[in-house]
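Figure caption, in words: inputs first, then the predicted bound structure.
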Amino acid sequence: MSVVARLDNVSLRYGEKVVLQNCSLDVAEGSITCIIGLSGAGKSTILRLLNGLRKPNEGHVYVKGTDICHMSERALIDFRSQIGFAFQFAALFDSMTIGENVALPLREHTSLSEEEIEKIARTTLESVGLENTFTNFPSELSGGMIKRAGFARAVVTSPDIILFDEPTTGLDPIITHLLTDTIKRLRAKLNATAVVISHDLQSIYMMADYIAMLFEGAIIAYGTVQEVRKSSNPIVQQFLQGSEVGPIPL
Ligand SMILES: Nc1ncnc2c1ncn2[C@@H]1O[C@H](COP(=O)(O)OP(=O)(O)OP(=O)(O)O)[C@@H](O)[C@H]1O
Ligand SMILES: [Mg+2]
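Bound structure (adenosine-5'-triphosphate present):
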């Protein structure tokens, strides 16, 4: 397995609050790696570390062989253009059309002409099934469409790594299925690596090459879907069963 990103013994605190402690994770190149864990466990924090939005208090974060903790802000800005981020709350600009939102990373990171930018933005919207929304505003779209527009913005620069933070939370089962499929397709099309945070076990079982479970600051289980589902760790089993009974403090 070739590793494209690695958290190496990372500890991270927000003030006094310890969120990650000696947390290590290898992300296999070309995989879909799903991170699961309790609300507030630090899953979004891991994505912020992987694209350099946060630096750890201790440990290292390697992406494509480079320790990004020592990059200058300037270098980080360039680096981030190779990493797509579909945020937990889509984070589209309400005052911009869907087309303008999707085109934004191209405007920021490339010197392509207006024509080329519009062409790529349109093709990318098509690739997520939103061909007719270019001139719509986010407020005119459904929740599932907003998520897909967020995906389009995340992949418009053809990144090598795509981070999806809760791509299906709060959506109906059919849209969830559609979005899960879209993630698989986008990953394959770009020949990229995807790291996906999700609470939706059905969707995870459908797309994950690997599952990593975060608990009390560290990854306590890692493996294929089959391996993790068969884990003998009672914490993993309680989480997957959604049971109130077990070792997880409520
Ligand atoms: N900027 C911040 N300042 C202070 N505390 C923070 C900050 N960001 C996150 N936290 C806290 O750190 C913990 C981990 O946050 P994080 O968003 O990574 O969790 P999460 O696993 O993504 O949760 P959720 O499932 O609710 O999205 C939470 O308790 C959160 O309140
Ligand atoms: Mg989160």
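The pocket of adenosine-5'-triphosphate (ligand 1) is lined by residues 14, 17, 19, 37, 39-45, 88 (CB under 6 Å).
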